[in-house]
Design a protein that fits this description.
176 residues; two-stranded antiparallel ribbon; 12 strands
Amino acid sequence: MSRAGRIDETIINFQVYEDDIEYYGMAEVTMPEISYITQEISGAGIAGNIESVVLGHFESMTLGLSFRTLTKDAISLLEPREHQLELRVAQQNRDTVGATTNVVALKHVFVVKPKQLSPGNVAPASPADASGEYAVSYWKTLIDGEKVLEIDPLNMIYFVNGRDYLEPVRAALGKS
C-alpha cells in the first residue's frame, strides 16, 4: 500500500513486558522525548550565533508508566537495576484505495532504570493513578518487524531508517 492511499488512524491496544515475559497492567505510557544536544557556535566569520546540533548525541530520556492501581509489578520496577521493557503496540490504519482496515505491529524496546514511583491516590471506586518514571539508556523501535530506530548512547549507535549515523564517528575513534 502506498503512503498516499493510507490514513494512520489510532492505537488499537498495547501491552508492556519485562524481559519478554512478564506483563504489567498499564493505563498509559508516556514515551521519551528525543532531543539532540546542541552547541552554540559563534566567532570570526559568523554574523552572530548559530545553534549546531551534535550528531547522534541526545539529552537524557525518560519513560513514564501510568498504572491503574499500585501493584507488585509497579513496585518491582523500583529494583535499582536495569530493566528491559518491551512495549508492543497494535496500530490501525486505513487503506483508502483498497477500502480495508489494517493492523501495523509496533514494538519499542527500552533499557531503563527507575527514577521515581508515585503510588497515586486512594479513594473509593476509583483508580489509584500510580505512576513511575524511568531513565532510558537504550531504545529500539521496530515497525512490522523492521528496525527503524535505535538509540544506544553507551555503544555509540544512532540508527534511523537503515542508516547508523554514528558509524563514521566510531570508525574515526577506532571502534568499528
